[in-house]
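This section describes the prediction task in plain terms. A model, or a person checking by hand, is given the sequence of a single protein chain and must write out its three-dimensional structure as a string of tokens. No templates, partner chains or ligands are provided. The sample shown here is typical of the held-out split.
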Amino acid sequence: MAAGAVHEVRLFATLRTGRGKVVVLETERPSTPAELLGRLGIRREEVAILLVNGRDGSFDAPLATGDYLSVFPPVGGG
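The expected answer:
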């Protein structure tokens, strides 16, 4: 990934609280979803579904320039 890459993080449900629906983050070096989520204050335990470019993603896989994340919390209710 080239320096200055921009990634869009799409947040859903409770993860939007205080963050908004879409957050755009710029990185200065290769990053992973875990690093981007850490910048947003989102812990792994708060994520039930992580998609990279609409497909199952891994917290620790390197991101390419322009990759986007979709992040969903666990579903609750009764």
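For orientation: The beta strands are 5-11, 22-27, 49-52, 55-56, 68-72.
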